[in-house]
Amino acid sequence: MGERGGCTRKVLRVNLTHKDSSTQHIDREVFEKFLGGRGVAAKIYFEEIAPEVRPLDEANKLIFMTGPLTGTVVPASTKFQCATKSPETGIYLCSNAGGDFGPQLKFAGYQGLIIEGRASKPVYVSINDDKVEVKDATKLWGKTTGEVDKILREEISGSKAGVMSVGPAAEEKVAFCCIRVDGRSFGRGGAGAVMASKNLKAIVVKGQGKLNYANLVELKKRIKPGEVRKACQDLADYGRPIYTESINELGCYPVRNFQTAVFSEVDKIDARFMKENFFVKNRACFKCPVACLKVCRVKAGRFEGWTVVPEYETIWALGAQCGVSDFNGILSANLLCDEYGMDTISTGNIIGFAMELYERGMITQEDTGGLKLTFGSSEAVLEAIELIAKRKKVGDILARGFRGIAAEIPGSEQYMMQVKGMPFAAYDPRGFYGMGLTYGTSSRGACHNVGGWTIRAELLSEEYDRFALKGKGKLVKSIQDTRAYIDSLGICTVVRRALGFSDEPDPTILNLVTGLDFTDKLMEIGERIYNLERLILAREGIRRKDDMLPARITKEKIPEGPAKGHVLTKEMYKVELDEYYEARGWDREGLPIPKKIDNLGLTNL
Questions:
Q1: pTM of the predicted model, to two decimals?
Q2: What is the pLDDT of residue 1?
Q3: What distance in Å separates the CA atoms of residue 93 and residue 527, rounded to the nearest whole number?
């Protein structure tokens, strides 16, 4: 295949123990079967991270992989993937991020980057085309992600360079720490704690190379940024917080740790309120015409004047999940999480959960050091973030994530909104039954992205009524397979439909980049990737019992709103899960059967 479309198929390995680097090439057959990104990262994970390896062991690795479209002229070709073993869930983790790092890695000549070993003291990795160095980072240790980003950009004089870093909370091994990437994040699952455990504070990359294309002339005729933006106009105008009002109106916007699903003060946190009162400017990721990132300014408090980009999930997690309607406080909490390097979704989930335990007397002021951990208090959220990041008082327990908390606070598990240790996203599955199956079967634990966002289909298709059970197995499988191949391409999911990448994909753009023909192959590639991930999970001990939903979802009815009275009982969920396993070609324990493995060309693994 050569190096058409930037697919150098060259992977850079950096060994921190020995402070050296080497390169290897991905076989063409592997590229054609797994594309790149999430698919190739999962294959490398399967081959190199044994099931007995623990997340913070030296033997764990950080596998970063771009896709064939990353860094190309294709709109929003910003994405790249990370695979590692998760400190939050203890199992396989896949995560994606935007920013400039992925494209810059491609410009430097690399399809992927694998970090292995552990440095004896704090270091950072510098990649400048073919010059790879492991440098001393003693001066960076203890600094926030914002400080690190600023220092490194000044050092390399590179505004367009890609910079990844971890914050002080990762240094404390908080289980749900993220890796910050050019203002974006590898958010879920705790990859930041893995990075810090290797004494690796940051990675910076700058490339001067240019990507090649199989047919650039025809490709430029096909990509029309103006049409892409028009197709995503709501997101261009308001960003992803545009969903806040509608999800609340549908009665499935979780409030106070999923005790209800309607937020009475939603008008103080929705997208229009945000834009009218806090919006500063739009920001776009690499080559993105949509610019769905809405930069907002904090108006008061310790972060007055600072700017941050709040996402739908973050606004919910640090807002309604904690009963908070103070948007200024939500922005401040968002900033604090970013600077410490903590995933906002898990942080907000765990604080909301802790607030319920405080309300029930299972956590006391003695545990919190005097902090009144009450719902509705934005100051309590900020103080709780500090306790977690510094592992002080009850924060030391909360920093362990749901798996660790369960072992320390008896009886608390029934109030945890999670699957496989991963906290829920901002959709109550009692209001959309497909989302329950999404949370249960996601490859990385409860997740609306990897697991499959069913809400569009459940609202717009007569075939998939949101309170129906039949058909959800087929629906979730299709969405998961679609997302798997898209995560492997290297484009943002926001623009995928406008580029022809759906569950009935038009691969023309990919073909023009690579010179290969992916007609009728992309959905099969997505299915192959998802089955490979399930084989990884099976090897790590995951079975049907691990795909189950928490007690609140299966036993407690939504108390108010449009979805009032709805619940997703174990018996109801069984209907969905059985259908899903059948659609996947898995047995009743959720294990891919030999025929399925063989049909997907995974037998050699």
A1: 0.97
A2: 35
A3: 17
